[in-house]
Design goal:
Chain lengths: 336, 336
DNA sequence: TCTATTAACGGAAACGTTTGAAATACTTGG
DNA sequence: CCAAGTATTTCAAACGTTTCCGTTAATAGA
């Protein structure tokens, strides 16, 4: 690998000058800067990331904290897409991304935060299904810039999907279709679940739609089996709803199967809506009526915010950015 | 951050001794090593990854090269799962992973290989849909340890799924069910497509099953729309097959929709098989008969091989490791 | 012409490690 | 009790940068 020194001897200047020239400092003449930049290019010079980081404490590396209880990790389409756009935006700004978790190093267990310190990441994005773990708290309370996705902490900037208004839009559509007997299956207790339920509740009361306790079930996100069971349970009651809100699109597949197995069909006998707008939901027939989260914007915004936090710490305030999604009218809701 | 020096002054020894003690060198007495290790723990010491890397040229970072033409990236379930298990295994061994691609740094375009050099990754895993790009060649021809997934280069160890025998197994099952009029839709030209077609061809000839050119179509992997069109085309012929091999499970969804739209049903009127064994395929009803690739083993094996290549360069030979998958009998193939 | 100012560049320390060689301290056998 | 050997520890250089500060050269003002 060619170093600053190599360039300096070739051009007969000091390494200090080379460094300054390449980094665009002002105290180097235009003539020499041009010459240095040129030979650096000729010799195929690239800065040594380690040496630079050692000196400057900046690695241009962003840590991604990325956990879900089921260990599905990247398989989770929402996270995968968000990460994808996050990565793209970060790379555009010259940052690389590294996965961060708790791990063993040299026989000693290292918390996620310690891991971040060890790798000297410049910033951290947290996208978890569970924000209540000690590992998350330690990172939140640390002194590395953090952006959270779909969860809000005090004093930390967050990028959140508009879960509340998204759910409102869904309910309004369903209500517009004439439904009043509506069941709601939600995912595990979390900030996201709370928000969605709030939107559902708000829209229902505005519409004068009764929320029956026995039609308000709590299950798991992204768990088709679980949703299958819960849907089955709903369908066994003497009175059944005309429309079911599934926890999310993926889980909805289980729900739809339960409906099918009960000898009913969507949307003729019963209607269903999902949440997320994952690719598969639009490949079903009928297409699932759902609310598509704007994952490209969420990821890119998180990256931009995080980088801004890193590069001008004082000019950026912690804020909460809500990203709107888009209602997708499929064919899974019958117009009564 | 507490450094070796901090520990050394606290214990009244030199930094060299501390370094050696913590790294398990032999030339330090048991008493002092114990003392040093203990105070290191007490003081919350972690090595500075940059400084260490600068000195040793080992970063304990693995680069992941991960491209597909459609830009689906992590959304591709096969890759997502492989990456997940790769990551898990790598972390177990103390390595972190960083995404590597071509990017701009300091205004100059950096090739993927240069990016690897810049970050000093210890090894690279390549999992692409297209292995024919200059970027891939540059990495392959470089001097950083490499493991490829699902593609074989000379002199580079590769972990490949058993595409050939997997496809054979599928065909044999279908043939056992009594099918002889079989269509085959394959994905884009690639090592994987070649292997699968080879398996299909081999098994067909062994069984005496004719491969009709007009029933052998080439489309895209993971492209439901494309498969929808191709399936529709197949169904428009005067004579239609009794079973269709879809490029993969995801694409199969398009094919299944085409069948449904043609007023036919699976498996009563026509049978279908997929490939991959993605989660969704087993949520359809009927479940898709397919061949599940062992993504956990593929990823973990790739990580183990790569790390072995890094840690004992001479004792490890480049090899090709084939990972078996598993036949999944769904309900999408009718027994004639 | 002389001094003050500015522009351009170099010296050198520092970041936190690792490591071979040198130095010191301990054993042990004769 | 000494020499030779071994066990333990320290020195110091090195990895490739960045950056503060000092130095020289050039320019301008008087």
């Amino acid at each position: 690998m060619v170093s600053l020194k190599d360039i300096s001897v070739r051009c007969g200047v000091s390494v200090a000058t080379v460094s300054k020239a390449l980094n665009g400092h002002k105290d180097v003449s235009e003539a020499t800067r041009e010459k240095l930049v040129r030979t650096a290019r000729e010799m195929g010079y690239f800065p040594n990331a380690q040496a630079r980081a050692l000196k400057t404490n900046r690695t241009f590396n962003l840590g991604v904290m990325f956990l879900d209880e089921a260990g599905r990790g990247l398989t989770h389409e929402f996270f995968a897409k968000v990460l994808n756009s996050f990565k793209t935006e970060a790379e555009r700004a010259g940052y690389d991304i590294t996965f961060i978790s708790n791990k063993d190093i040299g026989g000693r267990r290292m918390s996620t935060y310690e891991h971040c310190k060890y790798r000297s990441v410049d910033g951290i994005v947290i996208a978890c299904t569970d924000f209540t773990t000690p590992d998350v708290f330690e990172v939140i309370n640390g002194d590395i810039p953090v952006v959270t996705i779909d969860h809000i902490f005090d004093c930390r900037t967050a990028v959140v999907s508009n879960n509340e208004s998204g759910m409102e839009k869904l309910l309004n559509y369903v209500a517009d279709c004439g439904h009043t007997k509506i069941a709601y299956i939600q995912g595990k207790r979390s900030a996201v679940a709370e928000k969605r339920l709030a939107g559902f509740w708000k829209a229902c009361t505005a519409r004068g739609i009764e929320i029956r306790p026995d039609w308000l079930l709590t299950g798991d996100y992204c768990n088709p089996d679980n949703t299958y069971q819960l849907t089955k349970k709903l369908l066994k009651n003497k009175e059944i709803p005309t429309c079911i809100f599934m926890p999310d699109d993926y889980a909805a597949i289980g729900g739809l199967n339960a409906i099918k197995d009960a000898g009913l069909s969507v949307p003729e006998d019963i209607s269903a809506v999902g949440y997320d707008g994952i690719a598969y939901s639009q490949l079903l027939s009928p297409k699932l009526t759902t609310y598509s989260q704007d994952t490209p914007t969420i990821g890119a915004t998180a990256a931009k915010q995080l980088i801004s936090l890193i590069e001008n710490p004082r000019s950026t305030f912690t804020e909460v950015i809500t990203v709107d999604g888009q209602f997708l009218e499929g064919g899974s809701v019958k117009k009564l």
